[in-house]
Amino acid sequence: MYLVYEIPRRTSPWSSVQQAVRYYDYERALNLAKSIVREHPEDYYGHEYLGYIYLQMGNLNQAELEYSRAYERAPPERVKSELEEVRRRLERQSRVQPSATPKPWP
Predict the structure, then answer these.
(1) pTM of the model as a whole
(2) What domains are there in the chain, each with its CATH number?
């Protein structure tokens, strides 16, 4: 007979978010990340991670917003480059979007 016990481990609140992202469950990751950010709104990492999740979901506007929030709180170079990349994508997307007005038939 073996006596098994677990030593309590200190885990990051982000581990559940990371696991959801690994399984491409972005809706779950988004909900978990939002709840963490509500508790720590001034932490740049939370906004950076939300930006990443929104980017993976294809929501460039929200990604830009969250990366901007991260950049305002702690502007490490990596956040700046992510924000610039999202802005480039938004610019390309706005140039490629077809007009909503149908063209008349010749």
Answers:
(1) 0.73
(2) 15-95 (1.25.40.10)
